[in-house]
Amino acid sequence: MVLPSSNWSYPTAIRFGAGRIAELADACRALGVGRPLLVTDPGLAAMAMVRDAIAANRGSGLPTGLFSAIRPNPVGADVDAGAALYQAGGHDGVIAFGGGAALDAGKVIAFMSGQSRPIWDYEDREDWWTRADPGGIAPIIAVPTTAGTGSEVGRAGVILDEAAQVKKIIFHPKMMPAIVILDPALTLGLPPHVTAATGMDALSHCIEAYCAPGFHPMADGIAAEGARLIHDWLPVAFADGGNLEARGNMLAAASMGTTAFQKGLGAMHALSHPIGALCDSHHGLTNAVLMPYVLVHNRPAIEATIARLAAYIGLADASFEGFLVWILELRRALAIPHALPELKVCADQLDRIACMAEQDPSAGGNPLRFDAAAAREVLDAAMAGRIG
Fold this sequence. Notes:
By secondary structure, the chain is α/β, with parallel strands linked by helices. Helices cover 49% and strands 11% of the residues.
């Protein structure tokens, strides 16, 4: 089956299809951007896909700068350096190109390019986003090269505050990229371990959004279909990195997961953020390790919900137990670690992680109250590898 090329407009303008990176210059012009800054990570900056994108833009009369000093878990200093380069180069828009780190950093660089206050003054707390000058936010084009974070359709970026050792969410409605290019050809050959970790991140978004309390049937529908696509296609993408159909479906699922989690996230993310901040672990991989332990913890509140999801994605055993068995089998098939010590999480960090999890914005979307005591219960189970 050949995936169709199509344009989507929910929640933003999305150009989906193999080879659509060729439309990058057109996307810039559509936003009135004549001198973009391409933000990516150091690994991608050395690859042909980035060199070719910059060369194609320049060939179309769009001089394009490059900023790639982005850490795997971006920090405030990375954003400051990118914003300074943006100003020095006279740029008028940002192309956020890469995985979650590059997308988050690129979006926050575009946000900070015209602000006068320190980055942490715009953390996603209360109404702090109103402190920003919306006219100082540069237009953003997002080009994801992994299928997991879904940051291309989000209004926020996660940045590590090194001094506080806390991952903070920087939010503003205008941080939503105006145009997204979802080109599955850019994800071909992604290493299996990255495919697994990012794909499980997308699954965590779908599951947590579907289970979050509150009424948002559109988000529920998108989350359920995203989970079905991941059920069907993540193992294929993992086994065959050159399968364009699998890559395209996973890109779609990643965007769907983030679209859906406007409804809410939960304990997986509330725990993953502090673990990533303290242990420098990969976000998607951390979510994947935590997933079964959080599901078991939340079972009293989500058993019927998960059974519906199990039926929709096509599990033979459409029950909570059947869904949990599938998650555990999927993790094994993708070589996901089973317990937190494999992510270098130490026992003497657990109390601090638990307290940080209670304060994380994602905790409020968990189906059960997720305070430090509840977080410690999940952490203890995940450290011991104890399911149930």
